[in-house]
Specification:
The chain is mostly helical and 399 residues long. Helix content is 75%, strand content 0%. The chain starts with 6 loop residues before the first helix and ends with a helix. The relative contact order is 0.15.
């Protein structure tokens, strides 16, 4: 993937993102059907196999096939784990849980950068980073099923058992009878396409899907673009990780003060404007001011990282329980479609030569981020609101 074959790098990243797309869609639906726990164990198992197989790839074709399944399992693991964690807690803890999960993602990036610096042999590195998946598989066996999913499937006895165990641990008294009526009016037959059955749900769903696509383009695109910014790639990657961690800390501090909508819109606009501004130092300043371009790119990363964290929490609160995992799967489907575009956008500088080619990827990232941020103002606020359980609840939500 060097010299005349440098475009193979973009192809490989695109195919990995295609795996993310298929995994988000497939494992999202699977998790709604068989449950959050089994829906989590399946992609983790696939991740172990794909990680090990990737390190033994004899040629580019086998390599990208393995990377496809690696992307699919990665998306399925994160999506199922995120939904499971969010459904374990009440409104007051959703923000904390949703952002802390992203912080552990960021910690993983720090670990990856250290391992990549000291393990320069790629296949050895790939084997090394497959080890945590084996540990996860063992740990996940001890995690209970989501009570919300059990209730949505009318399995109230199992849900009550888990809730009473939680109450016992937390020293909380629960009423003798937890469920006095059918938990969901529409039962477990609701499908994600019902989110398109009314104008209000259609507009909200399309806005969410568009924001997922754009935030993925910007987030992954800026990550892939660090090698094109100049300077040491390890320093740039680590700086981007530090900025990402800062964005998650800011989300924890501000998400319950500003609300989901305001903070998401602000993050998208901040990141987008910062990316657009890079055209000025690139076109009008010499190489000694390269640090300005890098700084603006990092501000863009700050906004994109914060927006990615917020959109997970925001979407999980907007979609009703009975379609939540499938809807998040479709949202992630849109994000991965954006992710498939991001490698080619990030590598525009290799196609369009000169200073403008350096700024062009950041201009595309910035313009799309500003547009998506403004559209997010059409969504209702979800701060401290009761999660909608049915599609009818979702229709009335925010009115």
């Amino acid at each position: 993937m060097i010299c005349d074959d440098t475009l193979f790098r973009s192809h490989a990243n695109m195919i990995t993102m295609a795996g993310f797309l298929v995994g988000s869609f497939g494992f999202g639906i699977l998790s709604d059907v068989i449950g959050r726990k089994l829906g989590l164990l399946a992609p983790v198992s696939l991740h172990i196999v794909a990680s090990i197989a990737t390190s033994f790839s004899p040629n580019f074709t086998v390599f990208v096939i393995c990377r496809f399944f690696l992307g699919a399992s990665n998306a399925g693991t994160f999506m199922s784990a995120f939904v499971l964690a969010m459904e374990f807690v009440g409104p007051s803890k959703r923000k904390f849980v949703g952002i802390v999960i992203e912080m552990f993602w960021c910690i993983g990036l720090f670990v990856l950068s250290i391992m990549a610096y000291f393990i320069r042999d790629w296949s050895t590195l790939q084997l090394a980073i497959s080890v945590p998946s084996v540990l996860l598989l063992a740990i996940f066996w001890f995690i209970p099923e989501s009570p919300r999913w059990l209730v949505s499937q009318d399995k109230t006895e199992k849900a009550e058992k888990i809730l009473r165990k939680a109450a016992e641990v937390n020293k909380v008294e629960l009423p003798v009878k937890l469920f006095d009526k059918d938990p969901l009016d529409s039962g477990p037959e609701a499908k994600v396409y019902e989110m398109f059955t009314s104008p209000v749900l259609l507009i909200r769903t399309l806005v969410i899907f568009f924001n997922w696509m754009v935030v993925s383009i910007v987030y992954y695109g800026l990550g892939l673009n660090v090698g094109n910014l100049g300077g040491d790639i390890y320093v740039n990657f680590t700086a981007a990780n530090i900025v990402e961690l800062i964005s998650y800390i800011l989300c924890i501090l501000l998400l319950d003060r500003w609300g989901r909508k305001a903070l998401h819109c602000t993050s998208m606009l901040l990141g987008g404007i910062a990316c657009i501004l890079t055209i000025f130092p690139v076109l009008y300043l010499d190489k000694s001011y390269e640090w300005i371009t890098i700084t603006l790119s990092m501000v863009g990363k700050l906004g994109a990282s914060a927006a990615f964290a917020i959109i997970f929490v925001f979407s999980a609160e907007l979609f009703p329980t009975i379609t939540r995992n499938s809807a998040l799967g479709f949202s992630s489907f849109c994000a991965r479609a954006g992710g498939m575009m991001s490698p080619y956008i990030a590598d525009l500088g290799t196609i369009v030569k000169g200073d403008f080619g350096t700024a062009l990827p950041l201009l595309v990232f910035g313009g799309s981020s500003v547009a998506a941020g403004l559209l997010s103002l059409l969504l209702p606020e979800t701060l401290n609101q009761t999660l909608p359980e049915t599609v009818e609840d979702a229709k009335q939500f925010g009115r």
